[in-house]
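Quality-control log, excerpt.
Job 1 of 2 completed; input and output follow.
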Amino acid sequence: MDSMDLKQLNKFIESMKGGSIKNYILEGLTSTLIDQGSIRLFESSRHQTRQITPHSHTYHLFCVVLSGGVFKKTWTLYEGEFGERSEADFKTDEFMLSTIEKTDKFGKYKKTNESVGRYFNRIAKFNTGNCYEIKQGEIHSIDFSKDAVVLVFQSPEVEEISQVIEPIYEGEVIETLITEDWMFLKQPKGEVEDE
């Protein structure tokens, strides 16, 4: 991690600060609780075989790759010219942009289809020691390497609604934003799942 990454991380953590205690044991030492937003750890124990549906978040993320690697795909609406055999025809595909709102059940969403557009993605690779950001509203998907470990700092919520894009094939939306019973299984604190 270079000094620029550390500056970005420090700036990001500023947005997560809660209450402070000045002169904490020593004069001039301030202790601040980081309680706005959250910190989580992603650990991948398998080779990723499916793509995560391109989506945005209601908050900003700052990520530090502790081991392994990730590919971050950032999806952008193409607003250029279309024409017979244009560059756009080769680099874009048709997607349905939908808004999603959280429901009372974790991992379940209320989805509202909004508009059809042609999107393309840019791919960036991040290895051990690299950092990357995901801004609120940025449509993205992540591919994790086997044994990837990523420390994620999550800002407080900025918006209530996020977005998702799903492919359109032969005029039909292919539903890729799905949740299954095996997803989002909560594990009691301190327990380690058998592999």
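Job 2 of 2 completed; input and output follow.
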Amino acid sequence: MKRNRNRTDMERVPGVIAPEIAPPDTVVPKLDARPRSPRPATRYRYRFTPLILCVLWLGVALCVAGFSLTTWFFSDFVRTGDMGNIFAWLKYLLLYFASVGFGLFLAAILARSEYILTDGELIVRLGFLRSRTPLSKIVSVHLFRGTGRLAVYFDAVRTNYLFIVIRESLYDAFVRDLTSRNERIGYSFTTAEEEHEIKKK
């Protein structure tokens, strides 16, 4: 009789549902543990001042002129000079190397100067030169609204920094892109009035 009474009490408990156990042949779906695909790199064009642009284009023009003059003198040397003069050959070789090499270097600066943001690095490219900084080393980014400058800081005391020289209209996009790739990077800004008060101190 005791066994029947216990069975009756369990049957009267409302709302109790036993968990379903999947049969051995049932395939339990697994969560997708694959890492998220990396975001594509974002490029921000380096902004040169008009003075620097003039200097760079002047350098390119001088290299082209040097190459032309070297070619003119070299053709005259081939016609009338001593072909066995080793020093003359070395001189023209060095002149060609200097004009072509320096001209390509300046042209590369004009064509390929940019900042590249990836999921793990901030890459600064200046022509053929390139530097890489892990995003984990960036502490904060600060926007000086008064002077129109954007600075990236690598320490808390703000003694090690890098100015981001891009168009001011791209500052907000750069900050959002940088902080979204590493949420530990802080962001702050100062107005023109605040910067004026800091200069007074």
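Post-run check on job 2. The first strand starts at residue 42 and ends at 45.
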